Amino acid sequence: ADTLKEKSVEKAVKYAMKKIEGSYSFTLMLNDRVFGLRDPLGIKPLCLGKIDKGYVIASESVAIDVLGGEFIRDIEPGELIEITPDGYKSYKLMEEKHKAHCFFEYVYFARADSFIDGIEVYKARERLGRVLAEEHPVEADYVVPIPDSGRAHAYGFSKASGIPVAEGLMKNRYIARTFILPTQKIRERLVQLKLNPVKSIVEGKRIVIVDDSIVRGTTMRKIVGLLRRHGAKEVHVRIASPPIIAPCYFGIDMTTREQLIASGRSVEEIREKIGADSLGYISIEGLVKALDIDKNDLCLGCVTGEYPIRLKGEKYRFQESLEKWREK
Ligand code: SF4
What is the pLDDT of residues 232-241, one digit of tens each? Predict the structure, then answer.
């Protein structure tokens, strides 16, 4: 409140930033000024664009494209942008040594035609698919993407393995993303409504399904069963993210370890549960290599169980250096 008396929004925001730890990217409006702020670790994206005589602040660059605007740049972690009738100003309020970009944005959340922190999401996904094929080769007739989020990964897998891509699963586009739905029962029912196999591609064939992730395993188990019922000879599963073993505390609906199929299970146990002939996840090293982002600048909390922010009962990602520093 004292800071606000100074009538300086940037000082007030800086004060708040020092108090708040977590993931946030937001805008606020004050009379004729609009502000955009990204947390100091840059966990989630935020960018700035130009449209007609004004500006746009958006989570993804694709939002600026569809409005007919022009992408200017990403808002930096710890940066506050102020938009006034005369243009925009930047205030670098906090500078952390390491960032913590959510790897899941590149793997699943963002639209493939978005750019995040200078990286095109489609290209990142294609590279993930390539690395996945190198790490987990398989003999098969077709690579079948899970529409739509697994598509770019599948193309990358196909290019690296030489196995042709075939759209063996058709999607009902009016059904929402299954893993964000409220109950297990609704999720299971909707998987069935959501995808249907193409008989000529699936029947009698060895299929490799490539998808972005397995969270609860509900969708994947249904898909493997669906392909088998439609005559697939073999069903191999390749996943473009490492096993999700721990919850996300930064806004993604993966809240408890009990919900996660990979928590406390080996890859072989998961394979058995989903009913696939083989299962391969990209490694953490493979993920980092494909994204081409320094490992220390990524949030990998849900796949390592080590978080970029100190959380009660969880491991901090720089725990070792923190402990060494305390011992000194
Ligand atoms: S815990 Fe996982 S989903 Fe959550 S922000 Fe980190 S990388 Fe993203």
Answer: 999 999 999 9
